[in-house]
């Protein structure tokens, strides 16, 4: 069996081979203030509904550490699995999501969404295979 996913931290029970890194960014509608400003407004973070991976997911662990490190307070969030569902929810106005920088790269397709950097300290995710 082989698995592909976010690299686990301090895993000793299985062999883990690194694949590469990606950078997470805030996916927001094109007209969102953060997209217009080109940056996150930390003071406005509590007014946002965040679309996050479920607790226990490797990406969620990274996101929770990022939110704590940046002292972002969140009031409301929705948990979901999958890039497509997250993009649809952002497009429908449910909230904003944190996704890999590759999530909006679809040649010839207008998404109506923008990717905004997480800030000076990039939020990077390590991918791996294990078996």
Write up this protein.
- With 131 residues, the chain is an alpha/beta fold.
- Helices cover 20% and strands 34% of the residues.
- The chain has three helices and seven strands.
- Strands 1, 2, 3, 4, 5, 6 and 7 form a seven-stranded mixed sheet that branches.
- It is globular and about 45 Å long.
- 18% of the residues are buried.
- The model has no long low-confidence stretch (mean pLDDT 86).
- From the spread of the alpha carbons, the general shape counts as globular
Strand fraction band?
25-35%
Tally of strands: 7
Number of helices: 3
Helix fraction, binned, reads 10-25%
Q: What is the radius of gyration?
A: 15 Å
Structural class: alpha/beta
Mean pLDDT over the full residue set: 86
Main beta sheet strand tally, sense and closure: 7 strands, mixed
**Uncertain segments of ≥5 residues (pLDDT<50)?**
none
The helix-strand sequence is: EEHEHEHEEE
Distance between the termini: 6 Å
SSE layout:
Layout: E1 3-6, E2 16-29, H1 33-37, E3 49-52, H2 58-69, E4 76-79, H3 83-91, E5 96-100, E6 113-117, E7 123-130
Parallel strand pairs: 3-4, 3-5
Antiparallel strand pairs: 1-7, 2-5, 2-6, 2-7
Q: What key phrases describe this protein's structure?
A:
seven-stranded mixed beta sheet, 3 helices, 7 strands
């Amino acid at each position: 069996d082989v698995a592909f996913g976010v690299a686990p931290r301090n895993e000793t029970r299985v062999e883990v081979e690194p694949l590469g890194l990606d950078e997470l960014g805030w996916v927001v509608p094109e007209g969102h203030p953060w997209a217009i400003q080109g940056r996150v407004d930390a003071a406005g973070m509590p007014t946002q509904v965040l679309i996050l991976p479920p607790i226990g997911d490797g990406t969620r662990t990274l996101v929770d550490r990022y939110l704590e490190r940046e002292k972002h307070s969140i009031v409301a969030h929705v948990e979901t699995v999958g890039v497509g569902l997250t993009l649809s929810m952002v497009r429908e106005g449910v909230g904003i999501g944190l996704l890999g920088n590759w999530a909006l790269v679809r040649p010839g397709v207008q998404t109506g969404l923008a990717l905004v950097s997480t800030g000076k300290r990039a939020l990077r995710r390590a991918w791996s295979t294990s078996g």
